[in-house]
Amino acid sequence: MRCEIVAIGTELLLGQITDTNSTYIAEQFSASGIDCHYQVRVGDNIARIVEALEVALGRAEAVIVCGGLGPTQDDLTREAIAQVMGVGLYRDDEALRLLVSVFAARNRTMTDNNLQQADVPIGATIIPQVMGTAPGLICPVGEKVIYAVPGVPDEMKEMLARAVLPDLLRRSGEVAVILSRTLRTWGLGESALAEVITPRVDALDAAGPGAPTIAFLASGIEGVKVRVTVKAESEKAANVRLDAEEAELRALIGEAVCGIDDETMEYAVGELLVAHGLTLGLAESFTGGILAARAVAVPGSSRWFTGGIVSYASAVKEELLGLSGPVVSVEAAAAMAAGVRELLHTDVGLSTTGVAGPDPQEGHEPGTAFAGLALPGAGAFGTQLRLFGGRNRVREMGTIAAYDLLRRTLLNL
Amino acid sequence: MRCEIVAIGTELLLGQITDTNSTYIAEQFSASGIDCHYQVRVGDNIARIVEALEVALGRAEAVIVCGGLGPTQDDLTREAIAQVMGVGLYRDDEALRLLVSVFAARNRTMTDNNLQQADVPIGATIIPQVMGTAPGLICPVGEKVIYAVPGVPDEMKEMLARAVLPDLLRRSGEVAVILSRTLRTWGLGESALAEVITPRVDALDAAGPGAPTIAFLASGIEGVKVRVTVKAESEKAANVRLDAEEAELRALIGEAVCGIDDETMEYAVGELLVAHGLTLGLAESFTGGILAARAVAVPGSSRWFTGGIVSYASAVKEELLGLSGPVVSVEAAAAMAAGVRELLHTDVGLSTTGVAGPDPQEGHEPGTAFAGLALPGAGAFGTQLRLFGGRNRVREMGTIAAYDLLRRTLLNL
C-alpha cells in the first residue's frame, strides 16, 4: 500500500514554518508498513493543489492531504479535492450540526465564513472533529482514496490515529503488524550507549531478516532513545517479541533507562514517589518553574506533587528558603532543598540553582548548575550538574538532570 | 523565476528526520523574490528521483536538489540528474583534485567509494566545496537548470549563498526584495480577526498586483498571527511599506496585537512592567509554573520578575497565600494575587486558579479557570478565563490568557 503526503500552505513554501506534520505522518506510516515514496508541499492555490493531488494519485493508491480545511478564503483543500473527484461540494447537515455544537459549547459566535467547514465533496465521508472545528474527509477517487486532515498538529495526529490509519490498513489488507517500543535513556551519550548495546545489535544482525531492529534517536533534552521495531503476525505476538527485546536491552543499559515510549522523566519520578508514599516540594532558581510545570503535566500528579517556590530573585531564596551566602553553590542547592521541604511540609525537597546565562553570576560561567535533594531522615545534599548550550537548553537540561538525581536516589532507596 | 525544491533521502520518507533544509531554502528564495510553488521529498531510489526531477522541471524554470551527493551507494543524485539531462557521467579532474586535497588536509585516508563524489554529468559545472567533501553541481537542461547541493545543512547553506542564489538571480534578472512582518494577536478567534481586517484586505485586493498581501496563521496557544508580505525594489523601501501596513492593521485590530515577529506575550508584559518600573510575583495553581518558566525564558527578565509560588496543593494556597474557602473562584484568584504580592514584596501579583482536568474539582468542569491581579494602590481583582481543550492546552492557554490580562491592564494604566 502506497500513500503519498501532500502538505498545504503558502507559509511552508515561504519557509515561514517547517513541515513537521509530514515527518509525523511519515513516521506513523513507516511503523504501520505503509510505503510513502513522495511527499509534496504546495501553497494555497487551487490549480496547484489539484495538480499536486493528481500527480500523487497517479503514483500511489492513497494520498493524505494536510491543511487547508479552515474557515478562511485561503482554505482550498475541500474545493481542490472535489475538482479531482470531478464532483461538486454540498453543505453536510451532520458536519454543520457538529460545527454549531462546537461553537455553542465554547460560547462563541459562529461567523458565516465558518460555514464552509461543513462543505463536503459529494461522495466523501467526514471524519468528525473532537478537538477543533474543521472535520476531516475520506474521499474515494475510483479505487483510490484521498484523506484530508487539518494542519493543526494535535488535530491531525488525533484524526490520523482514529480514522486514517485504520482505513488505510483495512484497504491494504496488511496482516503483518509492525510495532515499535522506545526505551528512553538519560545519562549516557549516544556513542556510549551504542557501545553498551553493541553485543545485542550484532546478535540481531546475525539472526538475519525478520529479527527485531534497533535504532537510536538522539533527542536533545529527552536524552537518547533506543527504538526496537518488530514485525509479527498479530499485535499480541509483536508485543511478546517487544517484551523479550526490552528485557535484553534493559539488562545491558541498566538504570539509565528512565521510561518507555511516552513516559517522561517526571512520570518515572512520580511513579517512584507514589511507590514510596512520598510527596515532593520544589525550589527552583535557574530552571524558573520548569520542574513544577513538568510535574503538574503528569496526570495524577496531585498524588505526589505539593507545590514549589520559584526563587528567581536572591531575596526570595533568603526570605522563604532561609538561604544565606552565595546562591550558585552545592551548599545553596542543599539548603534550598531543605528549606522548601520545611516550608511546604513535604517528604522530599528538590532544588536547582545555577547560571543559565548569557552572563556569568557570582563569577561562575553559564552552565554552572547544582541540584539539591532533601529526604526524610537523610538530611540534604547537593550535586553539580553537567550542562551546556544556550540559556533555554541549560534550563531544560537542568530540569531533567535534577529529576534524574531524584529518580536514581529513589531507585536505590 | 520559479524554482522548485527537491529533497532527497529515505530517512525523510520514514519520518526519521524533519526536512528543515527545504524550509531554509524556501525562506531564502522568498527573501530573494524567487517563487517556489512546490517542494518534493523523495527517497534514495534512482527512478523516483528522476521522476521527481522531471515533474519539477516541467513546472518551473529551475530546480534545486538537496542531498544524495555523498560517497555511499545510496547517493544517487548525480546519476539521476545525468539521466534527466540525457548525458553520461565523467570523473572530473578538478573535482578529484579538490577531493584528494580535502582528505590530505584532514590527514585522512580516502577510500575508493569517495571517488564517485568527483563524478559530474557531462555539460554540468561543479560548485567547489569549502566545508565538506562532495561538490555541488550546476546542470543546464535546455533553457532550464538543476542545482545540486549537499544535504548537510551547513554545506547546503554555504553553497546556496555563494553559488546558487547568485546564479538564480542572474538568470531571473530580478531585483525585487520580498519581506514579511508578523503581527501576533491574542483574544480574537481566527474568523473574528478576519472580519475585523476585511476592509483592509479588500482594499489591498482592489489595489491589484504589487500590493501587500495578508495571511492568517492560527497558532494555537500563540494566538492568531497576521502576516504582511510586501515586495519592493530595496530592503529599505520594503520596510517603509511594512511600517505603513502595520499601522493600518494596528488601527483595525487595536490592543489585541500583542507582539511583532518573535515577540512573545511574556516579552510584551516584561516590556510594559519595565516601562512602568514594576516587579512581578506569580501565584500559580493549575498552570503549575508555566507562567514562571515563560517569564525566566525572556532575556533580561530579572529586571521585572521576582519569583513565584506554585501552590498546587490547597494547603500551600492557605498557608503561604492566606487563602480560605473555595479555591476555584474569582475571589480565590484575587486573594492569591494579593497574597503573593505581599509574600514576595512585589509591585504586581498575578495568579491563576482553576480546573485543568481531566476530573472536575469543587463541582467545576475542566476548563473553569480564573486569573487574579493585584496592583499597587488598586487592590486585587479576579476574572474568569475562557479555556477549552485537554489538560495541557488548558494550562498553556490559561498562561497566555493570564499574561494578557496583565498586559491589557498595564496598557490602560
3D shape of chain A: globular
| Spatial order of strands in the largest sheet of chain A | 2-1-3-8-7-6
Largest interface: A-B, 88 and 87 residues
Main beta sheet of chain A: 6 strands, mixed
The number of distinct helices of chain A, counting runs of at least 4 residues, comes to 13
Quaternary structure: homodimer
Radius of gyration of chain A: 26 Å
Distance between the termini of chain A: 51 Å
Helix content of chain A: 40-55%
- The poorly predicted ranges of chain A are none
Instruction: Give me the count of strands of chain A.
Output: 17
The H-and-E topology of chain A, N to C, reads as EHHEHEHEHEEEEHEHEEHEHEHEHHEEEH
Mean of all residue-level pLDDT scores of chain A: 91
Using brief descriptors, characterize the structure shown:
homodimer; 413 residues; alpha/beta; 6-stranded mixed beta sheet; 5-stranded mixed beta sheet; 13 helices; 24% strand
